[in-house]
Write a structure and sequence with these properties.
Layout lengths: L8 H4 L26 H13 L7 E6 L6 H21 L7 E7 L7 H19 L5 H15 L2 H6 L7 H8 L13 H13 L9 E7 L7 H13 L6 E7 L1 H13 L5 H11 L2 E4 L4 H13 L2 H5 L4 H15 L3 H19 L9 H15 L10 H11 L8 H4 L4 H7 L3 H5 L2 H6 L11 H14 L2 H8 L12 H5 L3 E3 L19 E3 L19 E3 L19 E3 L19 E5 L2 H13 L4 E5 L1
Parallel strand pairs: 1-4, 1-5, 2-3, 3-4, 6-7, 7-8, 8-9, 9-10, 10-11
Amino acid sequence: MAKKAKIDPDKKWLEPPLITALSDAPVKKNTFKEDAFELGRTMGPVYDILRHPKTQTPLSIGIYGTWGSGKSTAMHWLEDRLDLWTTDAIENKKEDRVKVYSTWFYPWKYDKKEDVWRGLIAEVLLACMNEVEDTGSGTSAKLVKDCGKFLGKSFLHLLSSAKLDGMAKIVDEAAEFLNPSKAYLNEFETVLENAVRDTLGNTEGEAPQRRLVVFIDDLDRCLPDVALQVLEALKLYLNIPDLVFVLGVDHDVINELVVGHYEKLGLSPDKSRQYLAKMFQVEIPIAPLEQKLDAFLLKQIEDNESWDALKLNKKEAEIFQSVILKLSNGVPRDIKRLVNYCLMAGRGVTFTDDKDDIKAGEAIQFSLLYKALDEHGKRNMLTSTAGQKLFYDISHKDESKDSETFNSTHTADMKKLVEDKTDAITKDPIIRKLLTLPFPEPNRLGTLASSFKTSARHDGEPQLIEALEKHLNGKKWADADEADLKSITELDLSYNDIHDLAPLEGLTQLKLLNLNGTKVAELAPLEGLKQLQSLGLSSTRVDDLASLKGLKQLRILGLANTQVDDLAPLEGLVALEILHLSDIPYLREQAAGLERANPDLKISFFN
């Protein structure tokens, strides 16, 4: 086998860079030349609604999609076109057009529900002053005086960014009377409606001249109280003509949040769902077509010279692209993350000068196998000699032989390693696809395998460690002792790209754990968390609940939008009071048995 050429250690670090990374930020501007996901198909009708003179307002529009599916990009697509429409109307004096202005509100920036409604209303008012043409300082001063007493002094910070002459003076004068404690909030709706109407300059009963669209993004990333407060603000304070709210949300997450909140108040799940149905008059699901995802991935690679720099052969490139699409589950953000993951793996081995001589393609194959095995909760197979031998045998087998030939050669160590998942792992289509490429000889995997083993054992996934360190009073995770771990009683990890829960094994006093929307599949690390009372697993990859059967204190469990098909492990959880499930007939049958055994249990079903 040819050895890597020796590189002068100093010159190696002076060579030009070979790879860069893809950003997962939404496309915000210049969306006219390219429309990778044909957003015109889904968002074009919304664009019509927003600018049509006969559109009845107030109006709320829900753009539904899972984490990373492109909700933010879709909303920026709308903003871009509305800006073009309105600019053209102003510059060319097209008086018959409704000028549509837009602003953004990010509720996840708030951690107190008392602040979020004021923040939302302040953004509406600021947009009226900043965006609408012909808004002078006199109108702005009246708006600030009329509304400021309800919003408090925190409103001043936002006001200071208004692009108007004399705003500094208005802010100084406003500081004397901004005191929400002296205001009656039940007066606020009328005051706010008048302020918005005066600024937009529309006349009741006539076609509107101007309209304001407020984009609200990442509502499902908020703390529950904050998300609910946004919905309440839309219903109570912002039911105002000429305002349109466009919200990007994960429907399942928000639905479960609303149902959970109102269940505590004694409202049935069906009536709770009606709350959300009444909230949005227009609903649009975002789900890129499969062929568009193929084209999107190909473009990410074609536009990034880093992929070519790795010098993969044609078969490697085709297989890796196919696997990236499968592992991403059609989520554009995950496609980009996986491309970056492969680039890092392939480039990393070119910086080493070890005896194993691992090529970029082999490193990417190993890394993607690691991801695929994580779906089965068995990524440790790749860091064990027995697992490496299995994959080597499969990848070099005679295609005429059945895979059972290889299953029968497992050693006792192999059987112990994979338990009862051997067949599922060896027949997994993603794993089989990757193993159509020659897997490296196990004796060449020492350095590469140990780098994965070390990372998994000591560091954990960055997002998980970052969340844990927020509870350690300035300590690093590596320095945490047993007392530190026991001090953590609540942990929200929702909507993070988290797979491995191993670092949670020592959190024996944990009472609340939110894993909704993560990539978690394996629950074994939770078996020792005997104090756990609330566990969110909705929209995860969990399919087996056996690890939960010992959690006798569990009161609330979310399992909507999972692959769970057997509820038997829950039969002994007598403290369980609230259970969320996918609305599937065979689960309804099992759920009925749980309800008979536990009359206090309330079960909600989600489509």
